[in-house]
Design brief:
Distance between the termini: 46 Å
Shape: globular
Radius of gyration: 17 Å
CATH superfamily: Alpha/Beta hydrolase fold, catalytic domain
Number of strands: 8
Number of helices: 8
CATH topology: Rossmann fold
CATH architecture: 3-Layer(aba) Sandwich
Strand order of the largest sheet: 1-2-4-3-5-6-7-8
Length: about 210
């Protein structure tokens, strides 16, 4: 088992960024099935290694795990495309996958490529796993932060906006009928795929009426 920390210049983020990779080099043949695992709000790429048994689990399952730093972005694209902040959605859904596949012997098959996350990372996994459904075969949402569109606007702006994270989502009224609303994405209005939820529940998100 190897744990590697990588820094590189990200085209989509417009700056240097880091990720950590867990590689089951002694326990499974390459190319490896791969999980892109997203951390929660206020954490970073080391959170899963420090606070969970992810290394032991990856070893047991013969699975490569990629742990990116998402800052407090909710893994979303920003409205101003020519700004300096960068596009975390494209970074997670496209660039990071391409970079890690060039660096390591990872499977490039959709059925071997997964995305998951906790809290903010669960939101990012849901939204980007379905947005980039041609890349990710399964999505795992662990206590996903999908409350923005599930509660009253007043509650979200006060109790549900602990450190100003609502700024990442944008105007709720304007965003409600876009792919930033997990309910629409999950129900398959925009991108149908398979979603794995915490526990034993499974759901097939099927395309409903044209949105």
């Amino acid at each position: 088992m190897a744990v590697v920390q990588v820094e590189f210049q990200s085209e989509t983020l417009k700056r240097r960024t880091a990720f950590q990779a867990i590689l089951p080099i002694e326990f499974a043949p390459a190319p490896y099935p791969t999980l892109y695992l997203l951390h929660g709000l206020t954490d970073n790429s080391s959170a899963w290694l420090q606070n969970t048994r992810i290394r032991m689990w990856a070893e047991k399952m013969g699975l490569a795990v990629i742990l990116p730093s998402g800052e407090n972005s909710f893994y979303l694209d920003v409205p101003v495309k020519d700004g300096c902040y960068g596009d975390f959605s494209e970074y997670i859904g496209r660039e990071l996958v391409e970079v890690t596949r060039r660096m390591f012997p990872l499977s490039d098959r959709r059925e071997d490529t997964f995305i998951g996350g906790l809290s903010m990372g669960g939101y990012g996994a849901c939204r980007n796993g379905l947005k980039y459904c041609g890349t990710f075969g399964k999505v795992a949402m662990l206590s996903a932060a999908v409350h923005f569109f599930e509660n009253s606007r007043e509650w979200v702006r006060t109790e549900g906006n602990t450190i100003g994270e609502l700024q990442c989502i944008g105007d709720l009224d304007a965003m409600e009928h876009t792919d930033r609303n997990p309910r629409l994405v999950f129900l398959g209005y925009l991108h149908p795929t398979r979603v794995e939820m915490a526990g034993n529940r499974q759901c097939i998100a099927e395309r409903a009426n044209t949105f």
